[in-house]
Amino acid sequence: MDNHINRLKRNILCAPSKKSQENCYTCKEKDSLTIPDQNTKVYAVSQEILSGKLLYEFKTIEAMVKIYCKAHHKETTWADCQDCQEFLAYAHEKLDRCPYGQNKPTCNKCPVHCYKPHMRAKAKEIMVYGGPRMLLPHPIMAIKHLLAERQPVPGKPPAAASNRHQRIKIKQVDSN
Fold first, then answer.
1. In the beta sheet, which residues pair with residue 41?
2. pLDDT below 50 — which residues of the chain?
3. Cα–Cα dist 140/127, whole Å
4. What is the distance between the alpha carbons of residues 33 and 4, in angstroms, rounded to a whole number?
5. Which of 77, 79, 127, 159 is least surrounded by Cβ atoms within 10 Å, i.e. has the fewest?
6. What is the DSSP letter of 76?
């Protein structure tokens, strides 16, 4: 349980579960999908950590991953797929630490490539497959994503604009 909470404190997302009896897919601990004091799903942490445009971006990539996983990993369900859950956790962490913060351009237009090369290739594969197929199950999300790709790319990211830096600033102000 300590490992799970430490991962939560480091803002690494653990995967969702349909049943609380299942193991956490990230840290493999039994019934660790709930935070002991708050009794909330760890997966809901993404809504506490990310907000605004970053949360919407995460929901978009999550929808694409679901479509991709359903077609490519037929032996497991989306919630049980270790590869897809690890990718989503990685994407969540990178969105949280994006140097552009709430002014983040879409990843394919971004001049700062924060993904590691193998994860960037996986993200591209997922987006190439899931993006066009997102139009039927998530039409509004797909159209908004296409419109976001047409926005101009901002210049150099401002210092300490990432979502993570903003949370740290708030914590420092609250502690003083």
1. 34
2. 1-44
3. 16
4. 8
5. 159
6. S
The number of residues making up the chain comes to: 176
Residue 1: other Cβ atoms inside 10 A: 13
Question: What residues contact residue 1 under an 8 Å CB cut-off, 6+ apart?
Answer: 29, 32, 36
Residues 6 or more apart from 107 whose CB is under 8 A from it?
115, 123, 127
d(CA 86, CA 89): 5
Two tokens, residue 55:
């949360």
- The pLDDT of residue 92: 92
Q: What is the pLDDT of residue 61?
A: 92
What dihedral do alpha carbons 46, 70, 94, 111 form, nearest 10°? Answer: -140
Whole-angstrom distance, CA of residue 149 vs CA of residue 95: 16
Whole-model pTM? Answer: 0.69
| pLDDT reported for residue 4 | 39
CA distance 70 to 34: 26
